[in-house]
Amino acid sequence: MLLTDSETLSVLKEIMALFPDAGPSLNFNSVYQLLIAVMLSAQSTDKKVNEVTPDLFKAFPTPKHLAEASPQVIEPYINQLGLYHSKARYLHAMGQQLIDKYGGQVPNQRRDLESLSGVGRKTASVVLSLGFDQPAFAVDTHITRIAKNHRFVDPNATVREVEKRITRVLPASEWKDAHHALIAFGRTICTARSPQCYRYPQLNPHQDKEIKRND
Questions:
Q1: Which residues participate in catalysis according to the annotation?
Q2: Which of 30, 38, 65, 112 reaches 20 to 30 Å from 150, CA-CA?
Q3: What separation in angstroms does the CA of 23 have from each of 20, 43, 130, 137, 175?
Q4: Tens of pLDDT along 16-52?
Q5: DSSP alpha helix (H) spans, the chain
Q6: Which residues form the signal peptide (predicted)?
Q7: Does the pLDDT of residue 125 top 90, yes or no?
């Protein structure tokens, strides 16, 4: 049985209380850098992304630099990452789009962001939330796993359904903090293998039997 809205909110609040200082793990100093870092994070760890971005940002400090570079020139800077061939093409095309359509600036509207090469709903949500301080909630694999394991949503729920469920019960002012707390919880406690949720009694009443301790 799925949790009620009030029960879901209670579990979310408990998770947020466990990680009150959680924040972004990608390194960036501008919205442009944030956009690139999030694009690169697909099929790669944030740690790996942070290892390649300093040289990448130095070589391509503006969208114009990306637009003027071929994907083959970009590739050596990101070839430690998964899907780097595709990512290099996306970065090049994204740079061209920013120059041609948005005056070299990262747009602050979801529709415009999602029109960029290599940018989907999740990436756009992260940029809107962290880059422009707009209410947006990005759902990654950690958040999806938590939502299903803790019965916020049906086991077959889509990412969009997870997003709708969490944003329905949480006020928009808390979406950003919840996003970071849930990712921290998923990385350290509610992991894909050997989850440790049973160690937190405040969550036990709402845990799925698969994640309870197997005595």
A1: 122, 140
A2: 38
A3: 9, 20, 10, 14, 12
A4: 999 999 999 999 999 999 999 999 999 899 999 999 9
A5: 5-18, 31-40, 46-59, 63-68, 71-78, 84-102, 110-114, 121-126, 132, 141-149, 159-169, 175-188
A6: none
A7: yes
Q: Where are the domains of the chain?
A: 5-23+138-210, 31-132
Token pair 């090469």 is found at: 117
Q: What is the mean pLDDT of residues 85-108?
A: 98
Q: CA-CA distance, 215 to 206, in Å (whole number)?
A: 18
Superfamily holding 31-132: Hypothetical protein; domain 2 (1.10.340.30)
Report, at the CATH architecture level, how domain 5-23+138-210 is classified.
Answer: Orthogonal Bundle (1.10)
- Half-sphere exposure for 53 (CA within 13 Å, toward CB): 24
For residue 1, pLDDT over 90 is answered with no
CA distance linking residue 152 with residue 142, whole number of Å: 13
Number of residues assigned to the chain? 215
pLDDT in tens, 166-201: 999 999 999 999 999 999 999 999 999 999 988 887
